[in-house]
Write a structure and sequence with these properties.
The complex is a heterodimer of chains A (315) and B (301). Chain A is built from 14 helices and no strands. Chain A has helices at residues 29-57, 61-67, 80-86, 89-119, 128-140, 145-154, 172-183, 187-195, 200-208, 213-229, 232-237, 246-255, 279-301, 304-307. The longest helix of chain A is centred in the first third of the chain and has 31 residues, at 89-119. Chain A starts with 28 loop residues before the first helix and ends in an 8-residue tail after the last helix. Chain B has 16 helices and 2 strands. In chain B, 73% of the residues lie in helices and 1% in strands. Chain B has 301 residues and is an all-alpha fold. Chain B has one domain: MetI-like fold. The chains are: A mainly alpha (315), B mainly alpha (301). Chains A and B meet through helix 1, helix 4, helix 5, helix 6 and helix 9 of A and helix 1, helix 2, helix 6, helix 7 and helix 8 of B.
């Protein structure tokens, strides 16, 4: 079985011509109305919940009481929740953990992925078929959660930050996609560089990478989002909330409804029934995890169609 | 050229692949070998090398465990429902988007529907809980207008549909990318000739568009079938306690709870190994199916 990555059939972007071709019939009013309605519903289903989350995070307790939960109509806006979360050491620390893990992890993943993708992208190099097979096998079969947990624990990963990075640092799929791009780098450019005396490091850095900006941007985003969103590794390996990333904070204090330390919430009247952190505060934490994604998104979005390839394995 | 000379020539390339190989060796291959602990009576006190071998005993226990079969059945049912209700959504959305003439509207809709793909499951479920949960926006609306509230987030009866709705919300938008690419690759001349021959828009959809998407649809179907036993581990894990084990236990959560939470490592590993092997069979079978349809699938024959 040999591996090739074929670019998705449409590296060409969808038809750019904004005129209706002459042979196409005029749209019917009914059809247009139906289409418009469906599009409107689709957009609303995605955007309304996000709007409600952000608005609730900016609302005071009175607005929340008035709305009976999530706020959909702005009543009284305040930045109080944001002031509260930035003076909460648990949340600030988890934000720092998430940011650090994301930056360090993404750099590490990108370096290893780019090197490996380039190392496997030169035609007829020694052993690249066998190495590629070794990589692909891990996509089809895995030892499962328990043995992985045992291995990471016995390597000392329990209660250590590296357990959030190393066990899932490389995605074979990303390597294969990137390798597909690298193999399609114009061979004459590479040959010319080689004639000029450039070695593989030089060629990778000055020829291959500059011509592969789209795929590098998209895969960087994939890795960064993966680290930013990672939750299970923290659940598995980090028992202590002093080390948790943001996602674990949301999981524990919003989804599971546990009492959040240091939020000033008073205990309820019943023994053992503790008041939750105010909803606006919870939604402020949720908004906090949305922000980096919303900020990074527009820069990378234009590369999606070009950078997305179908890594097809052909034999 | 002897292989020694080849290694000398390509040593830089080999060195470049080394970090990934080390990582995969440690975190993919060692666990693969380690999954033979399913044939042990593994104990943390004695460790892997000293634990007793028990052969197939753990598997026999597993295959006689009603809770395991419940998890197995839940996995298959959830997979089947998602195949029916989730799979067509990105295709339909792609067709709809492709029919929008205005480039601006199209790229705006695209950027909105791709967005939830980048949210974590924790975030998506939080958002669902706040919108549809017992104290969420929908129920406070229902209560205010004198209707009975319905806590969708903890209702085992409709849980499969809730999961599907979450999957559609998070992934269906992103799923259209591959179909849009397939649509863009269809030769526009085919549409023109079909139109000249008198085919209306529905006949063109049937005779030009769908055949043009066939290869990608089959590929996606193969991937889906091959992953039939993987049904969003984090998604399940997060909601398992709220909905209850009867409806929300799948093979992955079963392995996790027995292995990590209850420290019955061999039992969890056995469930994981069972799933891994069965998944491998499914992937190969799904590819066979693709070949039978005359398509490449994941790899060519």
């Amino acid at each position: 079985m040999t591996m090739t990555t074929t670019p998705a059939t449409g590296v060409r972007s969808p038809r750019r011509d904004t005129r209706r071709p002459p042979w196409e019939e005029r749209p019917t009013p009914g059809g247009q109305a139906a289409k418009g309605t469906i599009l409107f519903v689709v957009l609303a289903v995605v955007l309304v919940p996000l709007y409600a989350v952000v608005l609730t995070s900016l609302s005071d307790q009175e607005s929340i009481n008035l709305a009976g939960g999530m706020v959909l109509v702005p009543h009284h806006l305040t930045l109080e929740s944001y002031r509260a979360i930035f003076s909460n050491s648990l949340i600030v620390h988890s934000l720092l953990v998430s940011l650090t893990i994301t930056v360090v992890g993404t750099v590490f993943s990108m370096v290893t992925t780019v090197l490996c993708a380039y190392g496997l992208s030169r035609p007829r190099s020694f052993g690249h078929r066998a190495i590629l097979m070794a990589l692909v096998v891990t996509m089809f079969f895995s030892g499962g959660i328990i043995p992985t947990f045992m291995v990471v624990s016995s390597l000392g990963g329990y209660d250590r930050y590296w357990s959030l990075i190393l066990p899932s640092a490389v995605s074979v799929f990303n390597i294969i996609v990137m390798r597909g791009f690298f193999t399609h780098t114009a061979q004459d450019l590479i040959d010319a560089a080689r004639v000029d005396g450039a070695g593989d490091w030089r060629i990778l850095w000055s020829v291959v990478l500059p011509t592969s900006r789209a795929v590098v941007a998209v895969i960087t985003l994939f890795y960064a989002v993966g680290y930013w969103n990672s939750f299970f590794n923290a659940l598995l390996y980090l028992p202590d909330n002093g080390k948790w990333p943001l996602q674990m904070i949301i999981y524990t204090y919003t989804l599971q409804g546990n009492f959040m330390p240091g939020t000033g919430a008073v205990s309820g009247q019943h023994l053992g029934h503790q008041a939750l952190a105010p909803l606006s505060l919870q939604m402020a934490v949720v908004t906090l995890t949305l922000i980096p994604i919303l900020v990074a998104y527009p820069f990378v979005q234009k590369h999606f169609t070009k950078g997305m390839l179908i890594g097809a394995i052909k034999g | 050229m002897t292989w020694r000379m080849q290694i000398r020539r390509d040593r830089t390339l080999l060195v470049m692949t080394a970090p990934v190989l080390v990582l995969l060796a440690l975190f993919a291959y060692v666990p693969m070998v380690g999954s033979v602990m399913a044939f042990q009576q593994y104990s943390v006190y004695t460790g892997f090398w000293e634990s007793d071998w028990v052969g197939m005993a753990t598997f026999q226990q597993l295959l006689g465990d009603a809770l395991f079969w419940q998890a197995f059945e839940n996995t298959l049912v959830i997979s089947a429902v998602q195949l029916l209700l989730y799979f067509p959504v990105p295709i339909a959305l792609a067709l709809l988007l492709n029919s929008i003439i205005s480039g601006k509207v199209r790229s705006f809709v695209q950027s909105v529907v791709y967005l939830p793909h980048f949210f974590s499951w924790v975030l998506v479920i939080t958002i669902f809980q706040q919108m549809l949960g017992g104290a969420g926006a929908l129920n406070s609306l229902l209560r205010r207008h004198g209707f009975e509230p319905w806590d969708i987030m903890t209702d085992p009866g409709t849980f499969t549909y809730l999961l599907t709705a979450q999957a559609v919300w998070k992934e269906a938008g992103w799923g259209i990318i591959v179909f849009l690419a397939a649509l863009a690759a269809i030769d526009q001349q085919l549409y023109e000739s079909a139109a000249v021959d008198g085919a209306g828009r529905w006949r063109r959809l049937w005779h030009v568009t769908l055949p043009g998407m066939r290869a990608v649809i089959v590929l996606m179907l193969v991937l889906r079938l091959g992953n039939a036993l993987t049904v969003g581990f984090e998604q399940m894990l997060i909601q398992r306690d709220a909905v209850g084990r009867d409806a929300a236990e799948v093979i992955d959560t079963f392995a996790y709870y027995y292995g990590v939470v209850n420290n019955n490592f061999s039992y969890g590993a056995a469930a994981g190994l069972f799933k891994g092997l069965l998944s491998l069979v499914l992937i190969l079978a799904a590819n066979r199916l693709a070949h039978a349809f005359g398509e490449d699938g994941l790899y060519r024959r």
